Amino acid sequence: MLRSRREGDSVTDALRPMTKQRLYEQVLERLRQYVAEGGLRAGDRLPPERDLAQRLGVSRASVKQAIVVLEVQGLVEARHGGGTYLVRDSLDTEPVDRMVERRRRLPDVLEAREALETKLAELAAERRTEEDVAAMRSALAHMSEEIAAGGHGVEGDRLFHAAVTAAAHSSLLAEFMRSIAEQIAESRTESLRQPGRPSRSLSQHQAILDAIAAQQPRQAAAAMRRHVRTVAKVRLLDWEPEEEA
C-alpha cells in the first residue's frame, strides 16, 4: 500500500495529478521546428495566423496564444497589419511554466530593486570617488559597444548597477543586493529584451551617472527611480497565461 510522507497527507508531490500539455505549447514546438528546418533567420516572416491554424489543424486562438508567448519572450515581433517577423535566428522558447513562475515573482523583485537602488544612487552621489565614476563610465562604454554589436547590453547593464552599488560604500546595502542578484539578473534580461529598451536604458543610465558625478543626491535618486520603473514595463506582466489543455 502506498503511504504519504506524513500521516494525514493525501498524496506525495510525486503523485500529484497528471496534466496535459496546453495545445498552444504544442504549436510553439511545431513553430520551433518549422523555423529550424526552414533555415529562417531574424527578419524573416512567419506564415499568417490563418494559414498556420489550417496547416496545424488547430484554432486561430491557439496560434494567437503561441504568438503572444513568442512576443513576450522577445523572439518575434508582430507588426500591426503586417504579419509576424522573427527577431532571432531561432525559436528556442522558455517553458511556459517557467514563464508563469517568473511572472509571479517579478513584481516583488522590481519593488525591492526600486527601494534599494534608489537609495544606493542617492548615497553614491554623496560618497562616490573619481574611481567610482570611472567604473560607471567604463560600464556604459561596454554597454554601448554591446548594443552597437546587436546585443541587448546585459553585461554592461550589470556592470553599471554594480558600480553604482560600489559607489554607495554601504556594505549592508551591497549585501542585500547580492542576496537578490539572481532575481535582479532575471529582471534585467526581461527588460532589455523589450523592443527599443537597450538604447533607452543606456540613456537613463547616463542620466543617473551625470547626477552621481555632479554629486546631486536627489537628482540621482529620481533618475534611478525613473529607470527602475521603466524596467518594470515588460510584456510579461501584461501576459495572461492561458490554462487551455
From TrEMBL:
GO MF term list: DNA binding; DNA-binding transcription factor activity
Alphabetic keyword roster: Coiled coil, DNA-binding, Transcription, Transcription regulation
Domain HTH gntR-type: 21-89
Coiled-coil regions listed in the entry: 106-133
SMART domains reported for this sequence: FCD, HTH_GNTR
PANTHER family in UniProt: TRANSCRIPTIONAL REGULATOR, GNTR FAMILY, UXU OPERON TRANSCRIPTIONAL REGULATOR
Full protein name: GntR family transcriptional regulator
Species of the source: Streptomyces viridochromogenes (strain DSM 40736 / JCM 4977 / BCRC 1201 / Tue 494)
